[in-house]
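re: that chain from earlier
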Amino acid sequence: MVRKTELALSGALMIFTVSGATPAFAQQAPDQETERPDQEAAGQDAATAGQAPVTAGQNLVTAGQDQVTARPDQQGEAGDIVVTARRQQERLRDVPTAATVIDADAALARGGITDVQSLVAQAPAVRFFDTSSPVNSEVSIRGSGTSRGTNADPSVGLYRDGLYIGGGALGGRSFTRLDLFDLARAEVLRGPQGALYGRNAVGGAINIISAKPGFKFGGFIDLNYGFEVERKQLQAVVNAPLSETVAVRLGVDLIRQDEGFFYNPDNDVYFDRNNTTGLRGQVRFKSGRLDVTLLAERQVGQIPSVTFQVYILPNSRFPQGYIQPKYVYPWNFPPSAGQRLHATSLQATYDLEFATLNVAGSFRKRESFFQFDADALNDAELARLRAGGGALTTDPNATSRTDDLTKTFTTNIYLAGASTGPLRWLLGGEILSQNSDFSITTGRTPTPANRAIGFFSPSQVEYRSQAVYGSLGYSLLDNLDLTVDLRHTWDDKQFQSARFDRGTGLPAGGQQFIVDARQSPTNLSYTATAGWKVTRDALLYARVGSGYRAGAFNTNLGDPRAPKPVPPAYGNENSVSYEAGAKGNIVRNIYATLAGYKTIVTDFLAQDDNGCSATNLQCPVASTPFLTNAGKGEVTGVELEMDGRFAIGAGQLRLTGAISRQGGKIVSGPYQGLRIPQLPRTIASAGANYRVPFVGGSTLIANATYQALEGGVRDIASPIGIDTREVLDVRLAVQKDRWTLALYSTNVTDNEFQLFGSDTTRRLNQPRLVGVQLRTSLR
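^ sequence. v structure.
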């Protein structure tokens, strides 16, 4: 572990980080199209032969547009990767906002990306709140509020191929594993993005863009084995043209892992077991001005469950304290979690000459559940504790299961004007319809005072939203550009919830557990940006933008005995952010971006809990988290990213990196003076990727990534700090022709820290994992 000053210094000195998850700034220029001779990197699988060159400012082709990328040793100047951050194609260095891009080559340098933590770990000011299970983990950007145990919408806009996929009571604050499969690129936009991306983008937006069918045969097969947990993984993609106008792309993603690091001996299961199957099929038709892609996919399986260790220091109820072993938890109810995903989408563009028409729509059905032992004890452990005078009122039969079925239909249609002069424009509309059926089922031991065997609490949320948006930009001079974006949104949310005794089927808990409510807010979001091109490849910009997070309802009202009642509803959260930054080359082979910001949040959404805990005599069960409007919050920060390319001997070295410093407080309202939770003071990363000729015409590839964070508090009402954490991953590979063989290790130093903790529980990170990977590309 490092002290705060050491971590800040190491972050500054190690400002270069690996290509695997930091901005892919050093890609080819948009007016070039270079194919790699070995065709190995994953980005090639998304490439389309014969595609017209892409030029900065060219009209947007549907998100997910094929990008032909060069290998690291073949790429041009840094910053030239083409992105669609403003729903139009332009070079990343020309986008006047803080943005990080992870492309297929960058992902492959790390052996592929299969979880959100790996996706965002090295983007500055981005925090992945890992709750040990994907169903309620979430992403936070620039201090946007986290809501891990509630049914709240995310504070970051989550998009797949330009379409909103977030929301829903469970599993809607992060991406699924299948969303990350066969990645073309991911764009992480920091700061409010409400004008172009809409709801819940108060901290920023993340757009995952899947590789599309291309008109050249290709693909890959990837085999991966993790030794400590006996993890077996297969990923395979085949891309094939059926004619000059029709191409298909088929993929499969399998993981089989029955072992794990965290064990439940009572039921002989591992908390972190993972057995899922993902399938995807795409058909693309491209002829003349029309380009249409239809996608269908399905994921089903068992995913890692909620994991925690009971960690109670000696107190009045537990005179001897009680600390479970680090990785073995004696739960008498088996932990489990699962997720099913069925999705279809249509992406189409048509060139009207004066503009490009973009039409996109998707239907997404997501089923998620998790269950856990609410007291985290079996009978033997309870008897031992009672013999020592502790845990006298703990119920060994306390258990909880949460189920959610969310159906989301979204349509986005817009016109992007042709760039024929100083004026640029975009005009569009969006419709979102989302239904979420959510339920919590609890179990308990009946007593003379309360004969209930448990409760069943069903809820239903219906969310309807419509929006119109537009963008207008004008170049006053050759190097001075002004842009204004606006979006008006009409929301309607209806919520119904009740609570029933599982034994009698009658309502239980009183009138407070019967809720029938509705909210119909409207919102106007905006962005105003000024950009000054000092040179063709250097940009100074200033930006002010707003965003909002839709208010909703707390569907889990907890235990009636709770000392702090759960409010049934909370209002919208609104933010305004002021940002200034610079992008450009320090020297030709080193590209850097610098951004500073201040964000003011009105009605900041904070998570609190009802006060129940294993040590609470009044309510000795797991606490119930809820959301509430905490008041006015302010967050400030500065971010730096760099990307460098160097010829070292006969090889090519890429060094990239990121560091951010931030802080925030609630400055007025009921939680005035408290710090913004889950906001580390420092987030830093460092690493390197080195490619050098090896024996027999092969290439040796060495890759290392380092991630660190320190500072901040876990919850708004708790002074407990976030554990300082440092993680080093390494990978050594030999590549020859179409084949790559790699040996890798995650958390190679076996560093231990808490992902999250409270007065009575801890969640630990994953220990060191060693694995081997074999990959071949198809031609």
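The chain has a mean pLDDT of 85.
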